[in-house]
Amino acid sequence: MPPVLLRTLLIALLGALSFATSVAAAPFRIIVTDTEAPLVPNSLLNLAAQEGYFTREGVEVELVSVRQTPMAVAALQSGSGEMANISLEALLALHREGVTDIVAVHSSDKSLPFVIAARKDVTLDTLTGGTFGIGQPNSLDHTLSAAVLAARGVSLDALTLVPIGQPAARGQALMAGRVDATTLSIGSYLSLPDRSGLHLLVDVQDYFAAAPVVSKVNVVKRVTLETRADDLDRILTALTRAARDFAARPELWTAAMAKARPDVSHETLEQLTGYYAGNWTVNGGVQRSELLFAQTWYERGMDQNSRYIADPARWLSLAPMDGVLRRLGVSDLGDTLSR
């Protein structure tokens, strides 16, 4: 082979090798809707990164923070990440609209431990005509709370909705009297610096009773199932190991959250571990029976002549978690396996 041709081939091969290496080394970007570790089991994503679970599985992860589920969906669709943590309701809406390339592979949080907090002089009977703080229109807190309040005889249509953003901002607005009531996680509520002028309109148990559904799922594009299969397996393994550690030893979550959220008291964090017992997605969170129930719950208020419930096979891929469970086995510390 002529030297010039040989040199050309070697340069091409080195270039291809360099490109392949750079692709393989690209971080796996996970789009989250919190700017800091949230005070809910969905903190699993942040803490798995902070505590080195992803690193120990040999995968580099970058958390990309955006505001609320709609922006997370847009970021995933634009290629700004490989996975997104979004509401199940948003995923179902995408598939109703004809989007077929996004599927759920995991859930970090089966059901958010929400409460509805209000000023002390506000009751369910007097809330009508008042102001209600939401993240933004059609955000998870908005849609779930609409159903929860309806179950208690209050329609959101009878309230003035005030888009405020993240839970911390909604809590501040409530304390300042800018809104009469709002939805927060129990963690966000307990961490408020001054709750003396507030009370709970709907507590954790009543909220869950009205909305006992899977709230958030981790989704990927179908192409990611093929092009980043090994990385995805490592991601899900890391999340499963972290969930099992927090379920078996709640003090690990308390310690990790103390590092992530030094603004929250140790007493509050210890209180929260009691609320979260049994809520960790130790088997991946994507359990068929729970997801079917949640889908029916979300869809039941829709016009059945104009909309339909999408076949779970269209929006759910169990294969990635099944591979993890074959290696790690099934745990009895949290979500019960259902296929």
UniProtKB/TrEMBL annotation:
Coiled coil: none annotated. The keyword Signal applies. Gene3D superfamilies: Periplasmic binding protein-like II. Residues 1-25 form the signal peptide. It is found in: Periplasm. Keywords: Signal. Its main location: periplasm. Residues 47-251 form the SsuA/THI5-like domain. Pfam families: NMT1 (PF09084). GO terms for cellular component: periplasmic space. Belongs to the bacterial solute-binding protein SsuA/TauA family. This is ABC transporter substrate-binding protein.
